[in-house]
């Protein structure tokens, strides 16, 4: 893991999450992802965007114009970097398949610690008719902006007093999801994550040379983790052989 500034020559580089790579075991997610960091000193000159390499197959540059301000932009006009949120992932059995619903507080609250602590995973699972639940948070964004129409149409629910929307559902098929660190899964989504030129980007590269950008870090394993400590995260992570 290392840190660099976004080297895009445009104001932002974007990742369209059509085939987003995720660590569904939530082990990679829980450790806050690992990352090289990249930084860009290139000036913002026009509205052109460059596509970041996430390692997802057949990812394409964002070409659809965004015609309205997203809810996140309205709430956070200066961007969402280091904004706090929480997720709850509920595992269900749907017919013969295992399905994971992921609920997110973004847009509703910044997940106050007392409200988060009051939520018990078994109760969260039972409330959703699930067989298990994982509390994934608190988390803090390491991207600058997010655009999606998902929140407009997504289901919403309340865990304790925290309102959340359903960010995604992942179908694992008939086999229980593996609890393997750094397991790559593809999740169909239509979300644009953006890094401003000059922002720090944290990345890992796998043994096949594919690069993955961190979207957020967590305080699950280390409650004292902050964005300022991410440059040293690589020294404590146990990456698979061949990963950097």
Write the layout of secondary structure elements.
Elements: E1 2-5, E2 12-16, E3 20-22, H1 27-30, E4 36-38, E5 49-51, H2 71-75, E6 84-94, E7 97-104, H3 113-117, H4 121-127, E8 132-141, E9 145-148, H5 150-153, E10 156-159, E11 162-173, E12 185-187, E13 191-196, E14 200-205, E15 211-213, E16 216-218
Parallel strand pairs: 2-5
Antiparallel strand pairs: 1-14, 2-13, 3-12, 4-14, 6-7, 6-8, 7-11, 8-16, 9-13, 10-11, 14-15
Question: Would you summarize the structure shown here?
Answer:
This protein is mainly beta and 244 residues long. The protein contains five helices and 16 strands.
What can you tell me about this protein's structure?
The protein is mostly beta strands and about 240 residues long. It has one domain (about 1-235). It is built from five helices and 16 strands. The strands form four sheets. The chain has a six-stranded antiparallel beta sheet with strand order 10-11-7-6-8-16. Strands 1, 4, 14 and 15 form a four-stranded antiparallel beta sheet that branches. It is globular, with a radius of gyration of 17 Å. The protein starts with a strand and ends in a 26-residue tail after the last strand. Residues about 10-35 and about 35-70 have low confidence and may be disordered.
List keywords for this structure.
6-stranded antiparallel sheet, 36% strand, globular, 5 helices, 244 residues, single chain, mainly beta
Question: Mean pLDDT, as a whole number?
Answer: 78
Total number of beta strands: 16
How are the strands of the largest sheet arranged? 10-11-7-6-8-16
Q: Measured on Cα atoms, how large is the radius of gyration?
A: 17 Å
Distance between the termini: 6 Å
Number of domains: 1
Helix-strand pattern: EEEHEEHEEHHEEHEEEEEEE
Biggest sheet overview: 6 strands, antiparallel
